[in-house]
From TrEMBL, chain A:
Pfam families: BPD_transp_2
Keyword terms, alphabetized: Cell membrane, Membrane, Transmembrane, Transmembrane helix
GO CC field: plasma membrane
Protein name, per record: Leucine/isoleucine/valine transporter permease subunit
Gene Ontology MF annotations: branched-chain amino acid transmembrane transporter activity
UniProt-listed CDD domains: TM_PBP1_LivM_like
Cell compartments where the protein resides: Cell membrane
Keyword Transmembrane helix: yes
UniProtKB/TrEMBL annotation, chain B:
Protein name: High-affinity branched-chain amino acid transport system permease protein LivH
Single GO molecular function: transmembrane transporter activity
Any one GO biological process: amino acid transport
Native species: Palleronia marisminoris
Top-level taxon: Bacteria
Alphabetically ordered keywords of this record: Amino-acid transport, Cell membrane, Membrane, Transmembrane, Transmembrane helix, Transport
A Pfam short name: BPD_transp_2
Regions annotated as coiled coil: none
Membrane topology recorded in Swiss-Prot or TrEMBL: Multi-pass membrane protein
Amino acid sequence: MTDAALTGTAGRPSAMSARVQVALVLFALFALFPPVVIALDDPFLILIGTRILAYAIAAMALDLILGFGAMVSFGHAAYLGFGAYAVAVLSSFGIHDIALQILAAMAVSALFALVTGAISLRTRGVYFIMITLAFGQMAFFFFTSLSAYGGDDGYALSQRSTLFGMDLLRSNTVFYYATLGLLMGLFALCHLIVRSRFGRVLTGLRENRTRMQAIGFPPFRYQLTAFVISGCLTSVAGVVLANQAQFVSPAFMSWHRSGELIVMVVLGGIGTLSGAIGGAVAALLLEEFLGAVTEHWRLYFGIFLVLMVLFSPRGITGLVQQIKGSRR
Amino acid sequence: MMNLLVLQLLNGLQLGVLLFLIAAGLTLVFGIMDVVNLAHGVLYMVGAYFIATFAAMTGSFWWGLLLTVPAAIAVGLILELVVIRRLYDRSHLDQVLATFGLVMIANEAVKIVWGTSPLAVPMPELLSGSVPLMGPLQYPVYRIAIIASGLAMAGGLYLVINHTRIGMLLRAGATNRAMVSALGIDIGKLFAIVFTLGAVLACIAGALVAPILSVDTGMGESVLILTFVVVVIGGIGSIRGAFLGAILVAVVDTLGGVFGPILLRSVLDPSAAGQAGRMLAPMLIYILMAALLCVKPDGLFGGRG
């Protein structure tokens, strides 16, 4: 208890353990999914499961800055694209190892996040949203005109990435569990980051920027670091998605995708990490469900979104209210 | 070379006035109401679909254009009343989500009502054909008409904003919303007017461009992002900034696509220059925006953060 009180977010000592508990339940459900799928004899479901896990990683990474840093980045799909194209570009040069691909994806993402973040973080509020969106589009257009990798049409991958030189990920089930392992590892990492001194400074900046500045924490440096970390982690999800679809295209990084990532984070409750994972599951299941019922699923998804914002503001964004209160 | 430059400058100007018509509404909504409206590009698209329908119904482009205006007013008022009005006191995140939902709804609704295949709007008889500019150079009359009407509307907007009572309230609202409200102005009514005005301008932009583009569901999106860049460059809430930003973005975007590869050819070999040019051209305006923000984080005419 004292330990939690010391390291936890101010005033919410029990929130920490709750976050981990929810995440553990989710992980357990994820782990039980493949046996169920095998029992149902529908192997396609396992690929959908992998897709959900990949978006869970991305949503969690976005939550790191959206929830804990109050930075509404509308360009996060760009990092999905960097991850996906890292796989495509490296494998076209014969480098199939997933560790190297993740490393490359993170390096490119770190650089992009560093440059665009440094510019975007000079601004706040509406400007920040629009500028991150614009930079996301810039990356989108770059890959659209990258004719060596199919441009607009995308690029089919000849094989899945290898793990330590072995062809382990070829099995959909192994690939699923590998992605789950990745998600759990990254959750632990994000959890540690949020609990660390760095994480508490970030939360402090969210709550009261001026005060943090006054006691000697330069906001820019901390926020930029968080922005870069978040971008790097999101690109990991891109690496998984490219392998899941065995296909990459600029569609991975369209601004609709960025919007969907935000929806996932908000749906599950922002600033909780495990909420982002749950939100990714909920959003993608809703999408799959509506998609199965009607071809115009976007219409209903949009209506759901508008109604959600209009009629349950506290339910979904109780924390946002807090952020807003401190900003005014 | 000179001819090409003039031609592309005119194309840039034509895109610029259209961008201005869209950006003007967006920047006012941002500046006065502090609302992030991702659905603004949708209005541009809807304007194009309106004129396609009305022109087909009446058989005349002009009647189509005339009927688009009241339809646009209706759409603006309804949208404000049903959704946007409830977002004024919300966080930016809520606004982003709700208007993102509106984009999904509108794109899908358009597909349901008008189908997925692009529509074509016939060019009005009066404005078809080309006029000689200089030497052998010809330029389509319709594009000149777009430039002229866009500039006329920009001028009209300037007069309204700088020389009328409602314009004075708009400027005051962009500077200090709370004060305007405290002075007894019905801020709700002002917001409805501002939003509807923006909606009408965006719809008209969509209607004007319909004869030279194919009308389809994706058309609002590319323009929305360009408009965001314009608003960021010009400074939120500034009509003057939106005008300069729109022309700047459009000219850079148009000239960059054509002259980028030509300029690169002097330092690279032709095929590499072509390749690099094609990749760099669409990124130019974002680089411009980034460079400008390094110098002026609030945009050209933005006073507030």
